[in-house]
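Interim report to the steering committee. The following record documents the input for F-box domain-containing protein (288 residues).
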Amino acid sequence: MPGLLDLPSELLFEIIGLIASSPYPCRAACKRYRPTQMHSRAVVCFPTTDPSWPSHTCNILLTCRRLHHEAIVYLSKASRAFELDVAIVNNHWIWPTWRYIPVSKTGYAIESLKINLTYCCTEDERASSETATADWPTSLEFMKVIGHFLRCGVQSASFESTGMPKRGSHYRVKLITINLDTASIRAGNDKVREQDVPLRQVQGLGHLTFDPLYFIDVATCRENVDRLSAFINMAMPRLDDGSTIRERVDKIVFSLDSLIRSEINIAKKSSGKAEVRIAEYRRRKSMQ
């Protein structure tokens, strides 16, 4: 049987790709925390560990010269798309968890950000009507999470003074895809797996139980995605919290099972408004 270093570059690329794209395992002792200085309602709960450090590829780069070279070549060609899981619990709590972070240097403009949505509830809230449909404060906090990524990257407030390596920030994104996978929801009575929504303890909320979690039914999830799309389309050009998104994102797509349900073409809207202003300016100049 050939050894790892005897494999052709194509197979080594596949192995390196699997290692680099695998989610970093969450330790059982880790919790989530609420950066109250960043979100007024304190409902967004980030993991207490830095999702970008240490990196899976560090071990590959330090193994030997051959793997170091192959890993560098792979990273130079790898996708620069980010992937983020967001669980909305009880239509109140928002739990972001990074699924994939490009290891290579991304620069200011990145290709895409994919957000995987999960609507779920606790045992006590399964029969509550309040978890049925999304309200605008929850949608507003979700929009703030996107704005925080555009301004600060994958870092959250707990790492600002820890001496951790800083990731690039101030991103511009060509495409944000917000997708809901309904295949695992079924009738809405199944438990959410730990690997799908990890870290279910929140600092300072030891009196609340978030385990187990249950999926919300497909029809309600579909309605929630439509409400979220309508809210962002309405709020982004009007509210200050949407200014970062309208300045740095070209398009937002909402989809179910990767099938497009609606989209917001921000770049096209901005271009149209600019053309109207230019036409109005030229009209005024011609009248002088």
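The helical segments are 9-21, 57-61, 65-77, 136-152, 218-235, 243-248, 266-287. The committee is asked to note this result when reviewing the revised timeline.
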